[in-house]
Amino acid sequence: MREQQRTTDQLIQELDALRQRVVDLERAEVERQQAMEERSRLLRELKQANERLFQAGIRERELTEEAERRAAEAEQALRLREEFLSVAAHELKTPLTSLKGHAELAMRRLERQDMRDPDQLRHTLEVIDRQVDRLANLVAQLLDISRLESGELRPGRREIDLVPLTRRIVQAMQSGTARHTVTLSAPESLKARVDPLRIEEVLYNLLDNAIRYSPKGGPVQVELGAPEKGLVRIAVRDHGIGVPPAQREHLFDRFFQASRRPAGGLGLGLYVARRIVELHGGQIWAEFPEDGGSRFVVTLPAGTVKEE
Amino acid sequence: MRILIVDDDESILDFVCEAVADEGHEALTATDGAIALDLTRTQPPDLILLDMRMPIVDGWAFAEAYQARPGPHAPLVVMTAARDAADIANDIHAAGYLAKPFALDDLLAVVERFQRRSHVEMQSTRRLQQQARGDGRHR
Fold it and tell me: Which domains does chain B have, with CATH numbers?
């Protein structure tokens, strides 16, 4: 009996030991599982950290590119502005040269009693007056440009008759050139709701361009059209050198000058003209007829009188 | 003296032309470099007043073409509104410059300077010609 007891005790001990081992193994297994999960978790975190680092790297690259782009734009803007200022200075100095020259010449002649006839003095004063108009227009463009930039330009609209206004500008431009014939074709009266000073500026710019871009002279025709769909139409046609097709889409951009810069002007005329016309609720565009030259067309809100 | 005035601005051509004519000079005008180049062939001037910014053929192109030609060249005087008038004058080997807007007196002083110079040059050319005639030896 003792043998059996002992063996049974042994067996029980062994069983206990085995059970203990199983418990230990299970615990070890649990710990292993936990370790595995911990490892997975750490791997996941590592992956996420990598991902974040990668994204941060991309973002940094993007920011750097953005910064570089902005720097390049700022540099470009600065360059354009400097170029513009230099062109502006040149353009302002040209009428100043003429003003000074004519005035000093007249004074010199008066001193010498050299005025062969009073018409000469009148001619000189007319030239001076025209050059002042030209300077005034340039200054107006410069002021407009600065006000357009700051969003301050608000045309003060009134109902006016475009015909006498246009006729005045046509006559002024004609007296400044011997090689061109500047003509106006218009109804007896044409009312529009516009800011007269701003529209004068637009007309002046278009006519100045028409003359400047027909260096060999020729006709410049201004046409005023009766209202249609609540808009009146102004067209300025020249028979000059026109604009190369590649440059036509940039014509109304800021600082743009077709062909080479030597043609003069601030390069602002069409940009300012476009902004002014658009602020009036109108449109401006350029056409290039088959027989050469250009036609610039402006539409503006008609006056509130009956259309017939 | 025959003076060629080149400027795309007609009112500037106007007063410069009259100013030099008042002093007894002959004035030729051109509104761009191409016309000016033609005039230098048909009516060679003694002095050229040259604006730089002109359409078609500008001052730089004119100076290059003019100076590349064989034969005597009239002195060039640059008329420019640019800030670096002296540099421009140097670049195109001009004999002088007038910075716009210039005083009438400055314009006339320049003209007078070249009149005296061309007078002196004419005299020395004549002297050289006389010497050449008097000296019968050939190489």
Answer: 2-133 (3.40.50.2300)
